[in-house]
What does this fold into?
Amino acid sequence: MNRIDRLFNILLLLQTRRHVQAIELARAFEISERTIYRDMAALMQMGIPIISLPGQGYELMEGFYLPPLVFTPDEASALFLGASMLAASGNYAEETQRAIEKITAALPLRQSQLARQRADIIRFVMPRGNFDLENPYLMQLQQAILDKRVVFIRYYGFNRQEVTEREVEPHFLTFGEGVWYFDGYCRLRQDQRAFRLDRVESLQVLNEVFAERRPEPDPEKPVIQVRVRCSQAVARWMGERQHYGFQMEEMQGEFVIMTYQVERLTEIKNWLMGWGIAIEVLAPYELRRQIREEALQLANLLT
It folds into this structure.
């Protein structure tokens, strides 16, 4: 990083944090403290109102702000691409277009042209149904998490094939593998749980406010190791839509051995069955047994 970029980034840190010590800046930019002192002196000579507080570090004088919307070409491109991806998902189309127009108006002409050129040659195909930011449950959960409010849900559990009623202290939302999840403390199970939003049959935000997030009792969750054998050709196709539990692959003669880690066999069983006879489950034995039983039931159904 050249000195001009470093000085600008030091200003950004000073604007976003109350106090910054020289040793913190030296570590962040991988330079010596003596260089930081010279940088601070240079910023002060430029008229930046930086205050040095003994024992506390540096801070900006109250009321001083950097001009808004100062972006590098790569940062501007990231904003344009992010806006394009959001619009492609079917969310906030009008708001996204207005945001792009405001960013374009604020950027220098050459910079906005470069950002648009990059964005125009990239297209996003997004799952409109699943990535719905205006889903009523999603919006209710966002507010419940911010307000630390307990939610009451009727939830369809895949493992037990039943609907249960639960009170949950929601903590955060996650989007992965085309599905929305929310994590929180389940009072029914008295443990941390992750819930798929598309399995929530009904949701109600209660008036009860919960305390700070409960500590997880054991961060080391037990895992099940699954080993699968397939040909090299099949391994290539599997890699293109790989299971999230994938850990590694190794060659064994003309075959490939793939290793996965999951918490429950139900997480991977149906995905493996989708590959049919192109793969063989080596371990664990219980997974082999479950797949064999289901295959026999399918054969009887089609006979």
Remarks:
- Residues 154 and 201 are 5 Å apart (CA to CA).
